[in-house]
Amino acid sequence: MNKRPIRRAARTMAVVLFPDRFRRAARVTGVVVSLAGALLTSACRDIGRGGTGERVVPPRELREIGAVQPHEIGRPPARAPSTLPSTRATVEPLAKVPLTLADVRELALRNNLDLQVSRISPALANESLFEEEAQYEALFTTSAGYSSTDSPSANQITQQQTGNQSNSWNVTPGVQFPLRTGGVVELDVPLSRFETDTQAQTLNPAYTSDVAARITQPLLRGGGIDVNAQPIRVAFYGYQQAQARAKLEVTRVLADADRVYWRLFAAREALLVRRQEYDLAVAQLRRARSQVDAGAAAEVEIVRAQSGVADRIEAIITSENTLRDTERQLKRILNSPDLEMESPTELLPATPPRPVYMELDVPNLVSRAMAQRMELLETELEIALATASVRVARHETLPLVNVDYTYNINGLGGGWDDSFDMVRTNDFVDHRVGLRVEVPIGNAAARSRLRRALLNRVQALATLDQRRLLIRQEVLNAADQFEANWQRILAARQRVLLAQRLLEVEIRQFEQGLRTSTEVLNAQTQLASAQLSEISAVADYQIAQVDIAFATGTVLGQSSVVWEPATAPKK
User: Fold this and answer.
1) What pLDDT score does 77 carry?
2) How far apart are the first and last CA of the chain?
3) Is the distance from CB of 417 to CB of 83 less than 8 angstroms?
4) What is the distance between the alpha carbons of residues 49 and 62, in angstroms, rounded to a whole number?
5) Distance CA 252, CA 115 (A)
6) Alpha carbons 566 and 552: distance in angstroms, whole number
7) pLDDT tens across 85-124, in order?
8) What pLDDT sits at residue 197?
9) What does the angle CA 6 – CA 8 – CA 14 come to, to the nearest 5 degrees?
10) 427 backbone φψ class: left, alpha, beta (φ>0; ψ -120 to 50)
């Protein structure tokens, strides 16, 4: 196909739109183009993203997890409660890789699979947002056609049947500009060539070249920037909600890592207690044999002591299995290539616990939770979206009134030059204005959509109140557990002191022949039980601090955590 007519059409369109000597065409078409340009370029990136009244959550609030130090969740009381020194014997844990809490968090943020999955959701939501914004990109259109006809006709002069043959082709390139107001601007350059064997045809072949500008705009239903920004608004709120859920998942994973870290500490310390208990049982077996050899005790004491040693071996086996399970759980969370779950690598918690009493400021904790919990932010965004949906649904109850205006410059000639010259002279101009009105009879569907939008908003408001109540309960429960665990520490330490004194007395009594091995072993069991209670209370006290931080939407520590969504792969 000859491209020369299309190039001529483009030059003619430019000449018509801009030179001073064609002021009438430039004035009308320029208004249309200016309107389209203004609507396309004015605050394009903000439509539906905050420029039309949406709530915009700062990126820092969505991606930075605040930190709370232990002294910030409470303060030392005016009168410190009595504390007892730890009486539990410390033995160096058997571990290959020491890990601090900072190391655990760094590895979890880098390798945890749950976080990798969660970080993809904001990227997906962001692509959906780009997809909705792309609906307003300009669109190049073109259509082409060819026809050949051979129809009979009656010659009025000779009354003789003759033929009427013709062929034509047409090409219509153009550009469409979707408007943020719901309308469409179309700029077309229709080109056609018509040739026939009819003698009455003055121009044969005939060339036509037009320049047409058309704008269609809804005036009521479907019109306005706010209404047409709704798809972008929905995607934008979805993007922010996806970030809020991802941040919540990051906080949850870090809290889980901290909890497992302290459970690993407790499991390793419990194993040391079991081994210490075994050593005490072996020592009792030696004492029993000495007493039997000296004739101061019956031989049954050796059997009793041997039974006690066997019981301690079973307890060690159970503790070792618990330790391996806890190590494996922490390795799964960390997902580090150097710490495979199948590897025999032992993990040593290198951050010691700090069982220091703090007096909690519960009202402040509740206030921080209400300001920082992502569940509340996600629900607030849902309320904002529901409010916008109500506004759009109410708008959709209006009648449909569309106005359509077309401005067309006609060109005709025996060749392309003549046709385009006629367009440039701007002598033949068409104006067409149309109005289309649709008024639903009853309008039940639109009113039903409005009622549903109102109910969705009411439901979102109720959900917000429900979540606030649950979060308040979670903070109060965590605070009570914190207090209870501290009291458990004090009670367990007192038990350890008394159990140690009792064991010493029982051993002296046994050496004097006043006690049996069973009573000594029972005293050892009581001491081990008290030591295990102390370990559990200390670990639970640390976990309670983690729970308080999680309940307030933060992580325990001196520095905050900043996460980033996953990036889309390159094309």
Assistant:
1) 65
2) 34
3) no
4) 15
5) 10
6) 26
7) 444 444 444 447 899 998 999 899 899 999 889 989 999 9
8) 78
9) 105
10) alpha
What's the CA gap between 59 and 126, in Å, rounded? 13
What is the C-alpha to C-alpha distance for residues 427 and 425, in angstroms, rounded to an integer? 6
Q: CA-to-CA distance for 507 and 518, rounded, in angstroms?
A: 11
Q: State the pLDDT at residue 382.
A: 95
Burial of 68 (0-12, 13-18, 19+ CB in 10 A): buried
Task: Provide the token pair at 479.
Answer: 């605070």
Query: Averaged over 290-304, what is the pLDDT?
Result: 84
pLDDT digits over 365-376, tens only?
999 999 999 999
Average pLDDT over residues 302-308: 88
Q: Are 208 and 166 in contact (CB under 8 A)?
A: no
Q: Which two tokens stand for residue 156?
A: 């009025």
Supply angle C-alpha 349, 353, 358, rounded to 5.
155
Could you tell me how many residues make up the chain? 571
List of residues 6+ apart from 194 with CB closer than 8 A: 166, 168, 205, 206, 208
Mind listing the pLDDT tens digit for each residue in 163-177? 578 899 999 999 999
Q: What are the φ and ψ backbone dihedral angles of 126, each rounded to 5 degrees? A: -70, -40
Three-class SS of 207-221:
EEECEEEEEEEECCC
Name the 3-class secondary structure at 388. Answer: helix
80 pLDDT above the threshold of 80: no
CA distance 435 to 402: 6
Name the pairing type of β-strands 206-209 and 74-75.
unpaired
Q: How far is it, in rounded angstroms, from Cα 360 to Cα 76?
A: 9
Q: Which amino acid is at 15?
A: V
The Cα 270–Cα 460 span in angstroms is: 48
Place of tokens 């007192």: 494
Nearest to 405 by CA among 427, 428, 426, 436: 436
- Range with the lowest mean pLDDT among 194-198, 279-283, 326-330, 493-497? 194-198
Q: Mean pLDDT for the chain? A: 84
Token pair in block for residue 459: 């439901």
CA angle 314, 319, 320 (to 5 degrees): 100
| Model pLDDT, residue 88 | 44
Q: What's the token pair of residue 38? A: 């203004």
Q: Which residues contact 301 (CB under 8 A, 6 or more apart)?
A: 288, 291, 292, 516, 517
Question: What is the SS3 assignment for 136-171?
Answer: HCCEEEEEEEEEEEEEEEECCCCCCEEEEEEEEEEE
Q: CA-to-CA distance for 309 and 286, rounded, in angstroms?
A: 11
Q: How far apart are CA 275 and CA 532, in angstroms?
A: 12
Give the DSSP H/E element, type plus range, for residue 232.
helix 230-293
Give one DSSP letter per residue of 446-513, joined into a string: HHHHHHHHHHHHHHHHHHHHHHHHHHHHHHHHHHHHHHHHHHHHHHHHHHHHHHHHHHHHHHHHHHTT
Q: What is the pLDDT of residues 40-72, one digit of tens each?
A: 444 455 777 887 778 888 887 777 777 777 666
